[in-house]
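To illustrate the input format used throughout this study, we show a single complete record. The first block contains the structure-token representation of the backbone; no residue identities are included at this stage. The design step must infer an amino acid for every position from geometry alone.
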């Protein structure tokens, strides 16, 4: 991984919109949006447990505590430069819940520093989905659109790695630790990742080289 912290976004960086596809309890897909009509509702769920680290969830073959969506192994390096933005349509079983998003490189292997795998990350409070200064309790079971930026970044993801979006609730390292068990449901049809890529769609398609879309 090559990281260039503190620089402005590359002038040739363009946003590509990626959508997750079913299978996130194991590893679902992550591919370019086809730009067509609204896909059918597809809901996947996870349960909060702050005692489990993000790294443990990322390397698990399957997990009830996170949703994971990945590209095929990259056939060419992929240069990201700028600020990713995530949109999630979700519901909670309780009036309050943590929300965490990581972008990671797979496979996640033991014996390496977390930053060798972690591309980007961010956190949001769904109660503050409309305003940072005013919170509004969630209605359990009702779906909401939550959008937020991750961290500005510039790095190259090597060929052979898989780029993955991981969604979970409480981050053991950064958020409060509520009692485990809160259920989040994510509607994949209303969820996406705006990911800045140097060279835009053409560079993205070269990197995934005919993989599953």
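Output of the design step:
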């Amino acid at each position: 991984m090559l990281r260039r912290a503190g620089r402005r976004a590359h002038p040739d960086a363009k946003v590509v919109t990626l959508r997750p596809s079913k299978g996130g309890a194991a590893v679902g897909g992550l591919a370019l949006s086809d730009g067509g009509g609204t896909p059918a509702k597809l809901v996947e769920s996870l349960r909060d447990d702050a005692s489990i680290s993000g790294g443990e969830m990322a390397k698990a073959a399957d997990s009830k505590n996170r949703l994971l969506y990945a590209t095929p192994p990259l056939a060419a390096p992929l240069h990201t430069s700028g600020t990713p933005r995530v949109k999630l349509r979700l519901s909670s079983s309780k009036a309050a819940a943590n929300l965490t998003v990581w972008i990671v490189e797979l496979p996640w292997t033991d014996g390496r520093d977390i930053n060798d795998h972690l591309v980007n990350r961010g956190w949001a409070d769904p109660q503050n989905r409309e305003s940072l200064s005013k919170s509004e309790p969630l209605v359990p079971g009702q779906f909401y659109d939550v959008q937020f930026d991750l961290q500005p970044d510039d790095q190259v993801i090597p060929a052979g790695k898989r780029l993955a979006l991981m969604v979970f609730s409480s981050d053991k390292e950064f958020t409060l630790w509520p009692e485990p068990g809160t259920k989040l449901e994510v509607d994949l049809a209303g969820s996406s990742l705006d990911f800045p890529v140097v060279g835009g769609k053409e560079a993205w398609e070269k990197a995934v080289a005919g993989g599953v879309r």
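Structural context for interpreting the output: The first helix runs from residue 54 to 59. The first strand starts at residue 2 and ends at 3.
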